[in-house]
Write a structure and sequence with these properties.
The chain is built from 20 helices and 14 strands. It is of the alpha+beta class. The protein has a domain at 305-458 and 551-593. It starts with a helix and ends in a 10-residue tail after the last helix.
Amino acid sequence: MKQLKKLIYACALVILVQAGACKKYLDREPTDILLDDQVWSDPKLALSVLANLYSRLQPIGGLETGKLSPTDLDEAMWSGGLGANNARNTRVNYPYTDKQLWSYDLIRDVNLFLEKLEASSAMDAAEKKHLLAEARFIRAYVYFLHVRSMGGVPLILKTFQYNGPADVDAMKTPRTTEAGIYDFISSELDAIKEELPLTAGSKTRANKWTALALKSQAMLYAASIAKYNNLMADPIRTPGGEVGIPADRAEGYYEQSLAASREIIDGKQFSLYNENPDKVQNFYDLFTKKANNREVIWAFDYTLDGKYHDYTVENIPRSLRENASGAAGVTPSLNLVEAFDYLNGSTGELKIRTPNGADYIYYDRLEDLFAGKDYRMSGSVIVPGSTFRGKRVDIQAGVMEWNAATGQYITRTSADLGSLFTDGGTLVAADGPLPNAANVTNTGFYMRKYVDSRIGSGQSGQGSDVWWIRYRLGGILLNAAEAAFELNRPAEALPYINLVRERAGFGPNSLQSLTTTVIRKEFQVELAFEEQRYWDLKRWRIAHDVFNGNRQSPNTMVNALWPYRVVRPSDPAKHNKYVFVKRVAPRFTQPRLFRLGNYYSIIPQNALNANPLLVKNPFH
């Protein structure tokens, strides 16, 4: 209570200062009566408190607190400093604390906001209705974040006041079932969606469409768990249903997800971003251009006026770095690059050897290897030979020098970036890769999605105001496609997928049929680096198969692609051409192992100690 009063006082003070009334106000001591009278009767002051609640919804795996999230998967690895973060490249097991969430301080503050505002009779009814609905949306979203990490959690919809030891037992609440939390989210969103603004004016505050987007996602998650958890040989569940959803609930949840997705699609408030005829640049711009961006439904925005993130500083290519300790923090994997298919319909495996494997394929330019790939790849990943911030990003690991006596190549390398070979040409490029160095790519690729292309980014070396997109129409179309397909309506699902693919460079109606594998591949490539794949693999109940701890499995190791310049003057057809080598990224030493106990995060021990009614999650 004291913390919230301080927060309310601070928010109120900021607004009053801006209004030019600070002197008189600062002469007075704040009291509870003043706070209630001032805040809960004034929409601007109440909104300032609500804004604080929004600000506490920091991106879980996005641009700020979770910027290493892609390194938990096969999407990327850590190529930054050699300190503590490098442990993500060497750990054997996912810890049970991964994605743990128990934010009941935030839930309590939302409940208190609702109670205070509901009790106020001084505020205009329409303003009050909108603010109450927004707070209920925030609460529903927070419970979704909890249920996808923890399973069922205690469903607390009111504040508790501690007046003495007798109140302690009343505060102890058991976990609601996993299905019960999803049902609460569904009913809550249904109740408020028409009380929220009906037009998509703000991209950062809740409206009808953000409520529908959350429902589209949450109900798809619930449906997937109800179906695929029960298809496991030994389903993960608890006797009381705190974990696990009955299989007969799957169809109903898929129907709810599809209905919410349809309402967004048919509402015509949003459209796929198609502002640039260059399809690579267009896909990149989707994440960095805020003006006239009709694809974005809800985003966590940043401004350079004191609120910005260091994602660009941390992940920009080495040769473009803005300070001495930044660059190449998260570098994409070959695993992901090869997930992007070719526009002619062939699979995305990069062709680096002749069909019989006897020799390399020789390329005139580094970028030629990637010609004809899904445009989303180069919109998401900086590949060798790409241009970024007006500069060519040359990635070269060394030289392949031909030895005529042995009839073999000798690999020549250096520990120095930008080094030259004896022929005067590049030995190791300024952007690496290097096998064991900080802040230079280890995989042969750099991040592009969400990295700010503006030179200086407004606060060079400090931060960028590129937003973090939570919901966009591309994701909703994929939700609709999956839900329709799972409901055995492939004719409805197919156009949704084809719309997304057409923007990526594939022709209209590029797919004539769908499979589960095709749909899941689209989720992987369309939503790469958007805090999606980890949760998708979990809800489909395949994470333990994908990351099975076997070094020989295709996705347990992070793979790299290292380019080399050929030095072979005796053969002009090959001299000064480029060849490529696929390898495990040198700094990535241990195969990923996702255990059955990782499908739900462990409940914090202090919560278990305080509340004996809490049931532990399976395998913990």
